[in-house]
């Protein structure tokens, strides 16, 4: 069972790193390549016409903050049963959730062409980290 948990942890961490690398790639190519820039601008206009994007972004930031707060509360409650690794995971969770919240509340498509794409990718990375930390708090015992 320990091997399965380690393999899943590594696989999910790789997925999270790939999502963050994808965010970097989208931002890079949206600024350097004209075809990607046109596609991003076209999608921005489509999404703004169909969805209340700013409202959804603010709601998603609030939901991620609430989820992270619940995980931290569970961590405090179960602090005797978790190891150092879970504390490190919770620190990364706080950093990613804070980064997404800062990005969502201060950014806009006027400042950053690929803002909507990056917002989705950063939110995905924060959500993956929250789920990973929640699993660590609930499942892992003190394995120091």
Would you mind describing this structure in some detail?
The protein is mostly helical and 144 residues long. It has one domain. The protein has five helices and no strands. Helix 1 crosses helix 2, helix 1 packs antiparallel against helix 5 and helix 3 runs antiparallel to helix 4. The protein is elongated. The two termini are 17 Å apart. 27% of the residues are buried.
Keywords:
144 residues; mainly alpha; 5 helices; 84% helix
Give the helix/strand layout.
Elements: H1 2-32, H2 34-50, H3 53-77, H4 84-106, H5 115-139
Quick take:
The protein has five helices and no strands. The protein is mainly alpha-helical.
Beta-sheet strand percentage? under 5%
Count all strands and give the number.
Answer: 0
Proportion of residues in helical segments: over 70%
Terminal Cα separation, in Å? 17 Å
> What low-confidence regions span 5 or more consecutive residues with pLDDT below 50?
none
Order of helix and strand elements from N to C terminus: HHHHH
**Structural shape:** elongated
> What integer value in Å does the Rg equal?
17 Å
Count of alpha and pi helical runs: 5
Main sheet overview:
none
Structural class: mainly alpha
The average pLDDT is 90
Count structural domains: 1
């Amino acid at each position: 069972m320990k091997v399965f948990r380690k393999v899943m942890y590594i696989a999910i961490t790789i997925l999270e790193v790939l999502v963050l690398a994808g965010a970097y790639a989208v931002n890079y190519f949206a600024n350097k390549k004209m075809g990607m820039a046109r596609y991003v601008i076209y999608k921005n206009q489509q999404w703004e016409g169909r969805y209340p994007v700013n409202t959804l972004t603010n709601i998603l930031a609030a939901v991620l903050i609430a989820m992270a707060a619940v995980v931290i509360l569970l961590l405090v409650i179960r602090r005797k049963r978790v190891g150092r690794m879970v504390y490190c995971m919770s620190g990364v969770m706080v950093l990613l959730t804070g980064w997404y919240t800062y990005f969502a509340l201060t950014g806009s498509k006027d400042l950053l062409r690929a803002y909507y794409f990056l917002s989705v990718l950063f939110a995905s990375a924060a959500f993956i980290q929250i789920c990973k930390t929640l699993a660590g708090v609930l499942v892992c015992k003190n394995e120091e």
